[in-house]
């Protein structure tokens, strides 16, 4: 197959590129703004093509796009209202529209779990008060169903993403995890925050995407071509205790930190918070129905739980 990939220079992109390069013989096209940022070996085998360009100018590659069998849309813009809309909405829609109904078998589009509620339905607040990144992801998603190839789109919603190594960029979360464990867990361990979340490692995302490239047409109808990428949910208290055990810090007791007390602190100390930040503080439980990871498809998982993730991240 001929596979077109955006966002290959990022953390998730590097894991996906390595998997597609080393585990398949497909013809690969990676669109990147700066090839110097690529740490994977794109000379590993024949059939690997690096296309230098911006997603905003995607129609420069119209001829190639019209021959593509699978498109994997990972690239994103994190901030700036106009920039985010231009990349996260307009450019992705233009790319999908440039694909050929005759040749394109499926499109794997990366959204974010932040635009979903606990029942995997659209979260209205994400479209109204979300950050530039979250709001434009919401706006793009609502447009997908109206596209000519809308029924060939598999939307994936990553939860909290960890990953990175000497040969791969670190995700924002992995980049800060060591700092938190070294500087803040001595204080954090005394508190019990009410909240829960999912996480997934970039390597496990790559495993799922590689599976979808080959088997996307065989997905169970219960998913409706919408997959939340994450392991089983963790509570904040569980996470704190697991991290403390890993770094040999005792947790003798934990002081409950209820939401009403946090709100008092915000008012007393006049802490400035954006509307979305304040919503997240009160929403607290960012959990989803039927999270998907490699185990879902009977594939080995690289970081199936927090213990394993900490072994990989902290000991790296």
UniProtKB/TrEMBL annotation:
Record domain NAD-dependent epimerase/dehydratase: where: 3-224
Coiled coil: none
Protein's name according to its UniProt entry: NAD(P)-dependent oxidoreductase
Domain of life where this protein originates: Bacteria
InterPro entries tied to this protein: Epimerase_deHydtase (IPR001509), NAD(P)-bd_dom_sf (IPR036291), NAD(P)-dependent_oxidoreduct (IPR051783)
């Amino acid at each position: 197959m001929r596979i077109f990939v955006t966002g290959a220079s990022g953390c998730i992109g590097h894991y996906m590129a390595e998997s597609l390069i080393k585990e398949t013989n497909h013809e690969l096209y990676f669109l990147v703004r700066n090839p110097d940022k690529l740490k994977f070996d794109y000379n590993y085998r024949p059939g690997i093509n690096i296309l230098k360009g911006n997603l905003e100018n995607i129609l420069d590659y119209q001829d190639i796009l019209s021959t593509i069998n699978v498109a994997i849309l990972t690239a994103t813009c994190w901030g700036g209202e106009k920039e985010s809309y231009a990349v996260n909405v307009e450019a992705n829609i233009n790319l999908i529209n440039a694909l050929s109904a005759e040749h394109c078998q499926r499109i794997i589009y990366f959204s974010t779990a932040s635009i979903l509620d606990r029942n995997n339905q659209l979260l209205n607040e994400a479209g109204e008060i979300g950050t530039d990144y979250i709001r434009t992801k919401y706006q793009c998603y609502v447009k997908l169903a109206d596209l000519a190839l809308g029924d060939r789109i598999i939307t994936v919603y990553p939860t909290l993403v960890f990953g990175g190594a000497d040969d791969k960029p670190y995700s924002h979360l992995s980049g800060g995890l060591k700092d938190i464990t070294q500087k803040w867990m001595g204080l954090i361990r005394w508190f019990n925050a009410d909240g829960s979340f999912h996480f997934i490692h970039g390597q496990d995302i790559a495993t799922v995407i590689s599976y979808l490239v080959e088997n996307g047409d065989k997905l169970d109808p219960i998913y409706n071509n919408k997959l939340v990428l994450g392991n089983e949910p963790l509570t904040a208290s569980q996470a704190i205790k697991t991290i403390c055990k890993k770094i040999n810090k005792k947790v003798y007791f934990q002081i409950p930190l209820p939401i009403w007390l946090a709100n008092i602190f915000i008012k007393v100390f006049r802490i400035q918070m954006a509307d979305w930040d304040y919503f997240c503080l009160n929403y607290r439980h960012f959990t989803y129905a039927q999270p998907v990871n490699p185990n879902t498809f009977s594939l080995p998982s690289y970081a199936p739980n927090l213990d394993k993730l900490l072994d990989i991240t902290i000991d790296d």
